[in-house]
Amino acid sequence: MVEVAAGIDIGGTNTVIGLVDRNGTTQSAGSISTTQYVDIDEFVMEISQEIDKLMTTAEVKLVGIGVGAPNANYYSGSIEDAPNLRWKGVLPIAALFKGHYPGLPVVVTNDANAAAIGEMLFGAAKTMKDFIVITLGTGVGSGIVVNGQLLYGHDGFAGEIGHTIAVLDGRQCGCGRRGCLETYASAGGICRTVFELLASSREPSELRGISFQDMTAAKVTEAAKHGDKIALETFEKTGKILGLKLADAIAHTSPEAIILFGGPTKAGALIFGPTERYMNEYVLAQFRGNVKLLSSGLPDENVAALGAAALIWQGVG
Amino acid sequence: MVEVAAGIDIGGTNTVIGLVDRNGTTQSAGSISTTQYVDIDEFVMEISQEIDKLMTTAEVKLVGIGVGAPNANYYSGSIEDAPNLRWKGVLPIAALFKGHYPGLPVVVTNDANAAAIGEMLFGAAKTMKDFIVITLGTGVGSGIVVNGQLLYGHDGFAGEIGHTIAVLDGRQCGCGRRGCLETYASAGGICRTVFELLASSREPSELRGISFQDMTAAKVTEAAKHGDKIALETFEKTGKILGLKLADAIAHTSPEAIILFGGPTKAGALIFGPTERYMNEYVLAQFRGNVKLLSSGLPDENVAALGAAALIWQGVG
Q1: Please, which pLDDT band fits residue A288 given cuts at 50, 70 and 90?
Q2: Potential cystine with B296: which of A194, B208, B214, B261 (Cβ 3.0-4.6 Å)?
C-alpha cells in the first residue's frame, strides 16, 4: 500500500487532482471543471468524490491534501477574492476539505508557492535552501524560499513579485494599478509588447496578420524561430524588464537560483538568453554571475497538482 | 555582576563600542578612530583594549561580541571589499576578535542588519516577526526580518534594497551602476534632488546660496520647515521614489511594518508623509493601508553599537 498525498490545483477553467507518492511519482490523476459548480461546497464535494475514485483504482493510502489556488492564503486556509474564480469573498477551502477528510492535514497556498515547494522536493531546487520560482502564464506569480522555508510574511501573501512595478505609470494591470511586471512578462504581456512594436516600427513581420485577440506567446515564439525581427525584439524587451525585476528580487533575498516556470518558458533560449543577460547587467556587482537562472525541473504533466501534493510531503519531512 | 554584550559599530570615520545588558541598557560606551590604524590586526587590538578598559570601570561580565560593519558577511564573519574602509580585500574580523576573546561568541553582520535586530529586541519591532528596517544615511541599507530571523540568503548578502534600481538609467551610484534607490533616498540623494529642482525651475529658494559641496539633508529640512517650495518639492520627490521601492519590498516579503532609521528621518512628517502616501498608492491592493511605516524605536545615542550588541542577545534568547 503506497502512501500518497492528494495534490489539487484549482485553475480558472479546470481543477487537476493528482495522487502523488513521497518520491514525486503521480500514481493516479484526474480533473474536473472548475466553472460548473454554483456553490463552493458542491465543488469541494465533487473533488472529494474524484479523490475517492482515484484511490480505489490505485490502491493507495491518503496521508493529506495539498491545495494550490489563486489568491489562497496559507495562514487562513482560505481563498480570498480570486478574480478568476466564480465564487466571491473568502472561501474557507481548508475547512471544507477537513469536513470530508477528518483528521487528515490540509494545506492551502497559492499556485506559485506550491510550484516552489514542488521544485524543492522533486525538481530543479532539490539541493537548495534559498531560491525563487517565477511562474509565467496568464499572470506572473512567485514563490520565495528562504532557508528551506516558503516565505509567507506577516499576512500570508508574501511573494507577489509579479505585482512589483516595472514601469512607472506603465501598462494597465488586472490588479487595478499600472506598470506591474505581470503586464510585461506574462503570456499576455509578451503579446502586448508585440503590438507596441508593430505599431512603432515599419518592420515586416509574420505577426502583422494576427489580431490582438488571436495572438499567443506560442505564435510569437514560432515567429522568432523563423527569425522574425519583431518577435525577436519582443523577447529582447521582455527579457530586459524581467531581468531588471529579477535583479531587484536578488537584492532582496539573495537566492542561489531563480527558476522560471510556465508556458512562455517553452521559448527556451529566446526568453532565458535576454533575461539572464539583463539580470546580470542590472544586479549589484556582488551578485553578478552568482545566481543561476534555471528552467523548471518538474515534468510538464500534472505539474501544478504535483506542487500542491508537495505541500504535504514537505510537512511529513 | 551584570552580563553585557560588546556591540561594535565600525564606521568609516569612528568606531563606537558599547557594553549593553540584556535589557538594552548601555552600561558603558567609548569610541576610537577607524582611520588611524594601518593594519587591521592593530585596529582590532585597540578595540579589544577599549573593551577591557570599559569593563573594568563598569564591573560587568562579557558574554559575547557583536560587530556591525559595512559589507560584513554573517556567514564568513568577514568584511569584504568595503569601499569606505582603508583595509582592502577580505578581512576576517570575527576570527581576529576570537583571537582576543577565546571561547566567546562573535557575530558579524552589516550595519543595517544589526539595526534590524536592535529594533526587534529593544526598539519599534519588539512584538514583530516580519518587518524591514531601512537605514537612510550616507547610503541606503536594509535589514529584512522574516519569521523572527534575519534574512541572509544564499551568500549572506541579502537585504540590499538600497541597490535595487529605482530609475532605469538614472543617477550614477557608488556601486558602479545607475539609478539605485540609494542615489535618491540617501542624505546625498536628497541633496542631488535639490539641485535638479534648482536647475529646472525658477522658484526662489533659500537653498540657491548653498554650494553642492556644502548642501546637507539637515539644511533641506530646515528650509522645508520655513516653507521653501524647492525643499518641500524635494521631500515630495524623495518620498515618491522611496515609497515606490518600499511598495516593491512589501510585495516580496509582506512585512508587518517598515521602520525608517537614520539622519534624514529627523525631517519627520516631511519625509514620512509623502513616503507613506506613495507607498500605499503603488502597493498591491491587498497590502494597502496594512503595512505600518514607523520611525526607529531605539535611542539616538550609541544606537549602532546597541544593534551590534543585540546580535549577541538574540542568540542568547
Answers
A1: very high
A2: B261
Q: CA A268 to CA B98: how far, in whole Å?
A: 50
CB contact under 8 Å between A290 and B255, yes or no, is no
For residues B193 and B216, give the distance between their C-alpha atoms in angstroms, rounded to a whole number.
Answer: 12
Nearest CA in chain B to A81: B286
Catalogue the E-assigned strands of chain B.
2-10, 14-21, 26-33, 60-68, 72-73, 78-80, 90-91, 106-109, 131-136, 140-146, 149-150, 257-261, 292-295
Could you tell me if A164 lies within 8 Å of chain B, comparing CB atoms? yes
Rounded CA gap, A114 and B104, in Å?
Answer: 42
Q: Does B127 touch chain A (CB under 8 A)?
A: no
DSSP string for B128-144: -SSEEEEEESSSEEEEE
- The pLDDT of A40-56, averaged and rounded, is 95
Residue B291 pLDDT > 70: yes
Greater confidence, A86 or B58? A86
Using one digit for the tens of pLDDT, what is the confidence trace for B177-230?
999 999 999 999 999 999 999 999 999 999 999 999 999 999 999 999 999 999
Confidence (pTM): 0.93
- Contacts A–B by Cβ distance under 8 A: 125
B168 chain-A contacts, CB cut-off 8 A: 244
Containing A110, the helix (H) or strand (E) segment is none
Q: Which of A154, A258, A280 to mutate to test the interface with B (most CBs of B within 10 A)?
A: A154
A126 touches chain B (CB under 8 A): no
Backbone angles phi, psi at A180, to 5 degrees: -60, 150
pLDDT tens readout for residues B21-66: 999 999 999 999 999 999 999 999 999 999 999 998 778 999 999 9
The complex scores an ipTM of 0.92
Say yes or no for a CB contact (<8 Å) between A130 and B144: no
Q: Is B286 on the interface with A (CB under 8 A)?
A: yes
Put simply, the answer to whether B253 touches A290 (Cβ < 8 Å) is no
